[in-house]
Design a protein that fits this description.
The complex is a heterodimer.
Chain A: H1 3-12, H2 14-25, H3 28-44, H4 55-76, H5 78-84, H6 98-110, H7 114-125, H8 130-137, H9 141-158, H10 160-168
Helix pairs in contact in A: 2-3, 2-4, 3-4, 4-8, 7-8, 7-9, 8-9
Chain B: H1 14-22, H2 31-72, E1 111-112, H3 124-136, E2 144-145, H4 154-167, H5 172-182, H6 188-195, H7 201-211, H8 214-223, H9 227-240, H10 245-252, H11 257-266, H12 272-278, H13 284-297, H14 303-312, H15 316-325, H16 329-338, H17 342-358
Parallel strand pairs in B: 1-2
Helix pairs in contact in B: 3-4, 4-5, 5-7, 6-7, 7-9, 8-9, 9-11, 10-11, 10-13, 11-13, 12-13, 13-15, 14-15, 14-16, 15-17
The chains are: A mainly alpha, B mainly alpha.
């Protein structure tokens, strides 16, 4: 892949990368930072893209690493998290309408432990096949399935009232 | 949702959960933010490759230099001290900062300090991100940031700052101060672009006068209307002027005369000899400009020479101009002394009237 093609690919996948970052971080400003960092990393190491995986897989891997680095920074500085990321009280029963419920679910997903969040977002929302998702995350498919199960289990507990209501209907 | 897992026990509420999860709605990046990202994607590539090569070479040299310095330095050498005064934390801290030392500078400005021995290491990007986060969160005393490593990825830094500038203009001056401290001659273009923002000019001016050459400063001066900033630019030009020609040119220009005279008054070691030589220049305007500049400087070592020029009649008018522009008791004494000659006294009165009318 030459440089021109690389640039075109980068721009073509930018929207998807930004959306991925939003789902990971749960915040648009953090997502912009993460995406920007990913762009910088991708452009500075574009020659390392060998074409073995798809461009999207490669770029998402970079977005993911940028997200993890940003998370580490926040974890090092808990006070930043306190200011930057106020605790969201996820009480589905108070959801007044569908939209509010959607926002709350998104918040819950974005508050999952990072690894669970990464797996769920990649597999469930980005519709990445499990094999590719495992490659992006650098884990085995078995590990991915287990993590996905844990993520779903946790969300299921948090949304139990709604899942039972949905079952009844 | 393609999250079905055949290896895990089936759950009756899987479908219900899938339906719920499918409803998740995240916020979306604004068109402006997306444009910023697209712009970054379009503009970063061309410079990054070149910079990586350059920085790799520079890094190799730096590493070699660092190793050399470490070997040469005595084992008990004192660590470099940083001229800041740490203050008691005003923001509740829940954990000891890693790689960053919390402190506040007296000017409450964001400082990125050079590498300091004994500090923990942090990646350059992490340092910048932390600093910017602190600014964005509106901390009253932004941290003074220490980094063991010099900033390697300047593209990242500059592009981040541009993003921040468009995102939160209220913090622009603080961000500009960060730019100012990191600006190098290689970053002229970025610096010039940011300097177009009037709100940033005061913060960027120290970097501008440090980084730009005389020709660029002269162009900047032509577009600058704020007198204090003009004074700063002219002072920088006068301070750099070793052969006195630039100072003379500035002093000859009515638009820059006042700033030049002020700069000369405060200059540490202005070029006196070229100005003295210019008193004998064939151009009357250059002679006059040199006389005014010399008078403003009022250098004690020049006064006897000026007196001699008055007495011998060598460019007497210019020498008198210089003496009259000098607000010093010794110069006044010389003027009184030479004015005992009636013809010189008449010329002194004429020159004094000219000066009062022109300055």
């Amino acid at each position: 892949m030459d440089r021109t093609e690389f640039d075109a690919q980068l721009l073509a996948h930018l929207d998807a990368a930004a959306r991925f970052a939003v789902r990971l971080t749960g915040r648009v400003d953090s997502a912009e930072d993460v995406t920007h960092e990913a762009i910088v990393r991708a452009t500075s190491s574009w020659r390392t893209f060998s074409g073995r995986s798809s461009f999207k897989t490669w770029f998402f891997q970079i977005v993911l690493n940028a997200f993890r680095d940003a998370q580490r920074l926040i974890e090092r500085r808990p006070m930043m998290r306190l200011v930057d990321e106020p605790k969201i009280t996820a009480d589905p029963s108070s959801a007044a309408d569908e939209r509010e419920l959607g926002v709350r679910i998104a918040q819950l997903v974005s508050q999952l432990p990072p690894r669970q969040r990464e797996v769920l977002v990649l597999v469930a929302y980005e519709q990445i096949p499990q094999e590719q998702a495992a490659e992006i995350l650098g884990i085995t498919q078995q590990n991915l399935r287990t993590t996905l199960h844990l993520a779903r289990q946790r969300l299921s507990e948090q949304l139990s009232e709604f899942t039972s209501r949905a079952e009844r209907t | 949702m393609n999250s079905d897992d055949p290896q895990l026990p089936d759950r009756s509420d899987d479908n219900a959960l899938d339906q719920l999860l499918a409803k998740a709605q995240w916020p979306t990046l604004s068109p402006t933010a997306m444009n910023r990202l697209r712009s970054a994607a379009r503009h970063l590539p061309s410079s990054v490759v070149w910079q990586i090569t350059t920085l790799a070479a520079a890094a190799a040299i730096l590493v070699l230099c660092w190793i050399g310095v470490r070997r040469l330095s005595a084992p008990d050498s004192q660590p470099r001290t940083v001229a800041i005064t740490p203050v008691a934390p005003q923001i509740p801290m829940q954990a000891k900062p890693i790689a960053l030392e919390r402190a506040s500078s007296p000017a409450e400005m964001l400082l990125v300090l050079p590498p300091a021995p004994g500090r923990q290491s942090a990646s350059a990007n992490a340092v910048v991100n932390t600093a910017l986060s602190q600014l964005r969160l509106g901390y009253p005393h932004p941290f003074v940031v220490h980094s063991l490593r010099p900033f390697a990825n300047h593209s990242y830094l500059w592009s981040r700052i541009e993003t921040e500038l468009s995102r939160d203009p209220a913090r622009a001056p603080q961000l500009a101060s960060l730019i100012a401290q990191l600006a190098t001659p290689a970053r002229r273009a970025e610096l010039a672009r940011h300097y177009q923002h009037v709100a940033l000019r005061d913060a960027l001016l120290p970097a501008v006068v440090r980084v730009f050459d005389e020709r660029e400063l002269m162009q900047m001066l032509a577009n600058e209307t704020d007198f204090p900033r003009r004074r700063t630019i002219v002072a920088a030009m006068v301070a750099r002027d070793r052969d006195g020609q630039l100072t003379l040119a500035l002093a000859m220009n009515p638009d820059t005369l006042e700033e030049t005279l002020i700069a000369l008054r405060h200059a540490d070691s202005p070029a006196v000899a070229p100005l003295l030589a210019a008193l004998r220049d064939s151009s009357p305007s250059r002679r006059l400009a040199a006389a005014r500049a010399l008078g403003t400087l009022c250098h004690a070592g020049v006064l006897p020479q000026l007196e001699r020029m008055v007495l011998t009649g060598e460019h007497r008018r210019e020498a008198i101009t210089a003496l009259l522009c000098c607000r010093d008791g010794a110069a006044d004494d010389i003027v009184k002394r030479v004015s005992q000659d009636a013809s010189i006294a008449a010329l002194v009165r004429t020159v004094a009237n000219e000066i009062n009318g022109s300055i």
